[in-house]
């Protein structure tokens, strides 16, 4: 009986390791998304102003707005909205989520890196819900299964135990359309039964 408990205990540990692996894989896949933004910028220029005693440079703003678009990490993070020191950021007009195409390979690499050593792989699948019309958008689902080979339970006809786990990771961001902030996007509906 103690041997059977040992097999079940090891199978339980493999199951929990697989849970950790699929969680890490779905997070890695979801982490591959990028946010694109369109920033409204009032362009500026340097103007020289002189009075009776001296001249100095100051910033002046043009009477119109320009849109500057790109990845949020560049436009906002690296301040690429600013073409010169006088430009003024008015705000964001749009923010959208872009799936880069690297979600599946990132998730598979992470799953392989964290695969439980006691488990022989049988099935893996990675699904990136990148279509905004999908109720599961925006998320990545990883499902994996394997066989745990028993030692003692084999004497009772149980040679292996099948283990399957799934994980879904969503991507959250502030939705901005037409200059209006609609708050955080809704959580994707569960894609795992």
Structure description:
The protein is α+β, with helices and mostly antiparallel strands and 193 residues long. It has 3 helices and 10 strands; from the N terminus they run H-E-E-E-E-H-E-H-E-E-E-E-E. The chain has helices at residues 2-30, 72-77, 103-113, and strands at 34-42, 44-50, 55-61, 66-71, 88-98, 120-129, 139-149, 160-170, 174-177, 180-184. The strands form 4 sheets. The chain has a 3-stranded antiparallel β-sheet with strand order 4-1-5. A 3-stranded antiparallel β-sheet has the order 6-7-8. Strands 2-3 form a two-stranded antiparallel sheet. Strand 2 (44-50) and strand 3 (55-61) form a beta hairpin. The longest helix has 29 residues, at 2-30. The two termini are 34 Å apart. The mean pLDDT is 92.
Structure described in brief:
The chain has 193 residues and is an alpha+beta fold.
Strands, helices and their partners?
Blueprint: H1 2-30, E1 34-42, E2 44-50, E3 55-61, E4 66-71, H2 72-77, E5 88-98, H3 103-113, E6 120-129, E7 139-149, E8 160-170, E9 174-177, E10 180-184
Helix pairs in contact: 1-3
């Amino acid at each position: 009986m103690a041997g059977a408990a040992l097999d079940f205990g090891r199978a339980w540990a493999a199951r929990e390791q697989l849970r950790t692996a699929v969680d890490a894989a779905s997070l890695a896949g979801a982490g591959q998304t990028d946010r694109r933004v369109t920033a409204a910028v009032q362009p500026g220029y340097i103007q020289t102003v002189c009075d009776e005693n001296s001249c100095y440079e100051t910033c002046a703003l043009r009477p119109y707005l320009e849109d500057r678009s790109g990845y949020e990490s560049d436009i906002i993070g690296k301040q690429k909205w600013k073409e010169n020191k006088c430009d003024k950021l008015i705000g964001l007009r749009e923010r959208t989520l872009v799936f880069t195409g690297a979600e599946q390979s990132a998730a598979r690499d992470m799953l392989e890196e964290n695969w439980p050593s006691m488990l022989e792989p049988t099935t893996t699948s990675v699904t990136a819900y990148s279509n905004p019309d999908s109720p599961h958008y925006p998320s990545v689902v990883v499902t994996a299964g394997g066989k745990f080979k028993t030692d003692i339970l084999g004497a009772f006809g149980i040679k292996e135990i099948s283990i399957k786990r799934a994980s879904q990771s969503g991507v959250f961001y502030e939705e901005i359309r037409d200059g209006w902030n609609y708050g955080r996007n809704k959580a994707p509906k569960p894609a795992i039964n």
